[in-house]
Design brief:
Length: 297
């Protein structure tokens, strides 16, 4: 492997591609919800999903940097390699990359603001700020037990609602309820991450909910989020008295049983959690695709 290939691999792993379904899933769902109200603008859809992915990548790079400088990522880390902590990328280079990616997201945001107005500007600014403040600042969201709330909102109703608003210039309770599904699954992903890192987070003073409330809470949180998210389509069909095709997404829960069982048995075992993280990301994208397809059919 030559230098350029090695560098590409380092940066590719740094963006944490397994987390990207958390950004793409809500955009698919929001677009599907809008499809029944008016024709979908493909340009807006593509810009929305790309901006969401860029914000997620920028957040991942920012977290890589700030977790290192705050001393949370150490050689005792049990998760995937973090490039800054491992010495593969300098802190300055990681920060520049994060700023650059957020900058690209902001450029796309200008186009989206031109189509959606000030509500989209507010969502965009808050999304980028929250991504940075998740690990930055004197009271990082992820360090004081607010990570779950941030993830539930911004990877759920905010992302789905913002996508829907861009296409329709309106919002309604159905969209907000639907947004809870991807938000809950993303929260489950965070729960597993925090279960895996519970001991090192505690040693570093990072007070996630799992650190504060213990392993049993983290296991319950994961299972409750996955199961509740899978029941959202049932609630929506009951409210709307239609869109029964979306119930096909409930069957995605079948693919999550292995992860639920693994978390129940070995909720803080690092290899187990790493596999569950990957599988839950796949569950999120499968759920999003099935729900979206079923809703519009």
């Amino acid at each position: 492997m030559d230098l350029s290939q090695a560098q590409f691999k380092i940066w590719f792993l740094s963006i944490r591609p397994k987390t990207l379904p958390a950004a793409a899933g809500p955009v698919l769902i929001g677009t599907a919800l809008a499809y029944g109200d008016r024709p979908i603008h493909i340009g807006i859809f593509l810009a929305t999903i790309l901006a969401a992915l860029l914000i997620q990548i920028g957040t991942n790079l920012s977290n890589d940097y700030f977790d290192y400088v705050k001393g949370v990522d150490t050689k005792e880390r049990t998760g995937p390699v973090r490039a800054t902590q491992a010495g593969l990328v300098s802190p300055a280079a990681m920060m520049r990359a994060s700023v650059g990616i957020f900058g690209l997201a902001a450029v796309l945001g200008l186009y989206l603001i031109s189509r959606g107005g000030w509500p989209i500007m507010v969502i965009g600014i808050l999304s980028i700020l929250s991504g940075i403040l998740y690990t930055a600042g004197p009271l990082p969201l992820g360090y004081v037990g607010l990570g779950e709330l941030f993830v539930l909102l911004f990877f759920g109703p905010v992302a789905v609602g913002g996508t829907y608003y861009l296409q329709t210039h309106s919002i309604n309770p159905i969209v907000i309820i639907a947004g809870l599904a991807p938000g809950l699954i993303s929260t489950a992903i965070l729960a597993v991450n925090n279960l895996r890192d519970r001991r090192t987070d505690k040693a570093a003073g990072k007070k996630t909910l799992v650190v504060r409330l213990g392993r049993k809470f983290g296991v319950f949180e994961y299972i409750a989020c996955v199961v509740t998210a899978s029941l959202i389509p049932v609630v929506l069909c009951w409210i709307t008295k239609g869109h029964y095709g979306s119930l096909v997404s409930v069957f995605a829960l079948y693919t999550a049983w292995k992860s639920i069982y693994a978390v129940y048995l070995k909720g803080d075992d690092a290899p187990t959690c790493n596999q569950v993280l990957e599988d839950t990301g796949k569950f999120l994208i499968l759920f999003s695709v099935l729900f979206s397809a079923g809703w519009v059919l």
